[in-house]
Amino acid sequence: MINPIRTMVAVTLLSLVTAMTNQANAQNGSQTSDFLSEAKLQDLITTLESQTAREQFLERLRTLQAAQPEQEQDWSIREWFNLDSTSSDFVNGFVNLINELGLSSSMAGNLISLLLVLILAAIFVAINNRLATLFDRRMDSLRKKFSTAETRFSLIFRVQRIFGYIVAVLLLMYSATSFFPELAEIIDSQMLSSVIGFSFSLALLGLMLVLAWEFINAMMEYGMSDLSHTDSTRIRTLLPVVRNIAFFSICGFAALVLLSELGIDIVPLLAGAGVLGIAIGFGAQTLVKDYLNGFIIILENLLKVDDVVRIGDRIGQVELITLRKIQLRNLDGTVHTIPHSEISVVDNLTKEYTYYLTDIGVAYKEDVDEVFRILESVDKEMREDDEFKHMMLEPIQIFGLDEFADSALNIKVRLKTESHSRWPVGREFNRRVKIAFDEAGIEIPFPHRTVFMNPAEPEQSNSVNEEEKG
């Protein structure tokens, strides 16, 4: 009586050996019509029925399996998503669908079939463009909700349109080679199928990279929407730096993946890039210093966009900060571009808050205490004014009589203001002090010249006695 378990094992192993032998014969280019003769088949059954012989046979199979070289796993996008077979099935199914119409039996039928493919490709492109436009418009509500730019995520749908055009052209070319065998000698249909598969992988790669880029920008714009003025300027300072880093990182990743998709081994390229980076670092020390200093300046928040700073003998408002340079614009519109390696000392004139510090001179004959009261009243009026009260953070500080000058008593005062309100508050304060002093009859001294005529010698009209007063 035949043991069913042994029979099943024998059939399974026989199938396995048959498949392995057929594969080996196919690789060697040979075919064997009589794979196993009846005598060999009987020997194999006898071997499998004996437990000792079967175990020896299985041990040899395991040894053979262990001796097989391990195949390297392909990590390309086409292998992950099986895009080659998908694209081949897609184009072959499309062409077979056209062929089922029975138009390709003659030259005229092939032309009609090609025209039909052209019409279908145009319809596909139109529908794809229409969907891209519709999806882009549907994103408007999402953009308003998260306070992003009006064109955010539009790049995704632009990629969708480009991909539609590429697929339509390749599909038209593949159909032409199928309908007209003469073209197949010029354009290989198998190559076109591979190109279509590569286009699918390229579109998928582009979609992932564009999604990453748009998502990073959307997150930064959403984070800026709920920040205060100080925090928003800090984010505006970091924004170009983060965008540049993200852009170059995404481009580098895309280049490596694209080379991998083309079958190029990127491991030597990475090693060579490391060596090249070291060589560039030694050869461009100033450039490296620019980037290091820029990173430290941005990290420590020494200055930010819109700050008014003094760097060396340059002063202006910060317009742009990158990892390599700072761009200032002074009061007359001149733009100063300063590399970070040349920065040793930075004077930030608008860090968090500012002071308007000035000396107010009055004549020696004036009552200093009365002058103090007038200055305090002017400060109080300004802090009650709707235009200036939000700019002034504290009441006026009168340090007192600071100096006995040649022609005036100098009184030093200071006003604490918001970071960028120092200059408008100071100008308005000076204007109101002048008006208040005029109303109170307080003299603001200035150098002047008095001419006296000599009454004893009226005929000598040109003789004058000049006296300078303060």
Structural class: alpha+beta
What is the approximate shape? elongated
Number of helices: 14
Order of the strands making up the biggest sheet? 4-3-2-1-5
Distance between the termini: 137 Å
Let me know the largest β-sheet: 5 strands, antiparallel
Task: Report the C-alpha radius of gyration, rounded.
Answer: 43 Å
- Which percent range fits the helix content? 55-70%
Low-confidence stretches: 1-9, 26-35, 460-470
Overall number of strands: 10
The overall average pLDDT, rounded, is 76
Strand content: 5-15%
Give the topology string: H per helix, E per strand: HHHHHHHHHHHHEEEEEEHEEHEE
What would you note in describing this structure?
It is a single chain. The N terminus and C terminus are likely disordered. This protein is α+β, with helices and mostly antiparallel strands. It contains 14 helices and ten strands. Among the domains are: 48 residues, no CATH class; 144 residues, no CATH class; 97 residues, Alpha-Beta Plaits (2-Layer Sandwich). 60% of the residues lie in helices and 14% in strands. The strands form three sheets. The chain has a five-stranded antiparallel beta sheet with strand order 4-3-2-1-5.
Secondary structure: elements and pairs:
Elements: H1 4-28, H2 38-49, H3 51-67, H4 77-80, H5 83-99, H6 107-145, H7 154-179, H8 181-184, H9 189-225, H10 229-261, H11 267-283, H12 285-299, E1 308-311, E2 314-321, E3 325-329, E4 335-339, E5 346-348, E6 353-362, H13 368-384, E7 397-404, E8 409-418, H14 422-440, E9 448-453, E10 464-469
Helix pairs in contact: 1-2, 5-9, 6-7, 7-9, 9-10, 13-14
